[in-house]
Specification:
single chain; 419 residues; alpha+beta; 57% helix; flat
């Protein structure tokens, strides 16, 4: 029996060593990963585990593996590199780019601003109408003076917002505002009276942009192309602004200069306006004016080509030459391009300015009669009709008729778009 004792002790010592090794492994694991008591006992295989309630185990790595730390460091470096690299790359490319490429890059940034501004103004107007209809007008009779006053103020705020947004965005936004002016039978008077400022007043561009456009189209600045050129525009509209100038022989001319960025931003602005009108129609189903933009989209692209306008003017002059009281400004082709139109300059007043007509010693009734004759000629005889007959496109002036000593009234017909 003596030989069994040492063997038994060796067995026991071996079992203790296994337990110590297991405990050592558990401690090492616990140092590596912080785990809950339930899973620690599970690893040590002690007690009846299912008598314990297993709490929510939150595994927080006390010491993450080197590979995890390396991946996180690489991600941080990558994001930092992108955040710094894109602006740096864009700045370097902008400095090295040509002028036209720089303009397109600026338009990309400005286009985002115009989109955000347009959506913001649309939401502002929609919320204003919602607040007026559901809060301010609650309990008021539709026929009461208070009701009409509140609605009128809401219309006025909306019209002011549209005008300010159109002038800030410029271009097609002003053109759409001008188009809305023609719907005096549909829109409230607050809209019509406010939007009329867009007929002749719009955002004016600086002389540097005018010089840049002339250098691209004529290879010289306007003050080198003309004997005199006034950089201060006498009128600014949706697509262009007009400058007074003199040819080398002293002839006074009007120079219509297109805004240099219109062609580049045309498609983006059209899509923004379409989206904006769709959003407004979703919020206000009774507001359905997206068809206005659809009708305008086909003709706006033609309006950006001033050579088409010049050819239309010459055709109009030929077809109306038998009317002694009609003057169509003569085009100077050597000073014109697709973005610049140079024609004879005439003084006058708007055809709806009755006071201005009387100050010239003329009679509004005579003006109306001659205007009807012109439109009747175009509608019933030539079929070539002025398609944008707002007051700014028809001026009234005194014209001295050849071979007669008296002064008669005449109409200066500004040609823009014909059908």
């Amino acid at each position: 029996g003596g030989w069994r004792g040492p063997h038994r002790r060796r067995k026991e010592s071996g079992g203790q060593a296994a337990v110590r090794q297991e405990q050592s492994g558990a401690m090492e694991l616990r140092r590596t990963v912080q785990i809950c008591r339930f899973h620690l006992l599970l690893l040590q295989r002690k007690k009846d585990l299912w008598l314990l309630s297993a709490p929510n185990c939150r595994h927080h790595s006390a010491s993450q593996p080197p590979s995890s730390r390396t991946q996180r460091g690489l991600l941080k470096k990558m994001f930092l590199g992108v955040a710094l690299g894109i602006p740096l790359f864009g700045g370097v490319r902008y400095v090295l780019a040509e002028k036209q490429e720089r303009r397109k890059m600026r338009l990309l940034v400005d286009g985002v601003g115009r989109f955000v501004r347009s959506v913001g103004l649309g939401v502002q107007i929609s919320l204003d109408y919602w607040w007026t209809n559901h809060i301010l007008l609650r309990g008021l009779s539709e026929n009461s003076p208070e009701y009409k006053a509140v609605v009128s103020k809401c219309h006025q705020r909306a019209a002011d917002t549209i005008v300010n947004g159109a002038i800030q965005n410029g271009g097609l936004y002003v053109k759409l505002g001008q188009g809305l002016c023609a719907f005096n039978h549909l829109l409230p008077p607050e809209y019509i009276n406010t939007l009329r400022v867009l007929e002749d007043k719009a955002l004016k561009r600086g002389y540097k942009e005018v010089d840049e456009l002339f250098l691209e189209d004529f290879k010289v600045r306007p003050d080198q192309l003309f004997l005199e050129f006034d950089y201060q525009p006498i009128a600014a509209a949706s697509l262009a602004q007009v400058h007074r100038a003199r040819l080398q022989d002293g002839t006074p001319v009007a120079v219509k200069v297109q805004y240099i960025d219109l062609r580049d931003r045309f498609n983006a602005d059209i899509r923004t306006l379409e989206l904006l009108l769709q959003i407004v129609e979703m919020m206000h189903p009774s507001f359905g004016f997206s068809w206005v933009l659809k009708d305008m989209k086909g003709t706006l692209a033609q309006e950006l080509d001033f050579e088409i306008e010049a050819h239309n003017g010459e055709r109009c002059a030929r077809e109306l030459e038998h009317f002694s009281f009609v003057v169509v400004p003569r085009v100077h082709w050597d000073k014109s391009s697709k973005r610049v139109l140079t024609a004879d300059f005439y003084e006058g007043c708007k055809i709806n300015d009755t006071e201005g007509i009387r100050r010239q010693g003329l009679h509004p009734k005579d003006v109306a009669s001659k205007l009807i004759q012109i439109f009747a000629e175009q509608i019933f005889y030539t079929g070539f009709i002025h398609a944008d007959p707002h007051p700014g496109n028809g001026m009234r002036r005194r014209i001295r008729k050849w071979m007669q000593p008296n002064i008669i009234s005449g109409i200066v017909w500004r040609t823009e778009l014909w059908s």
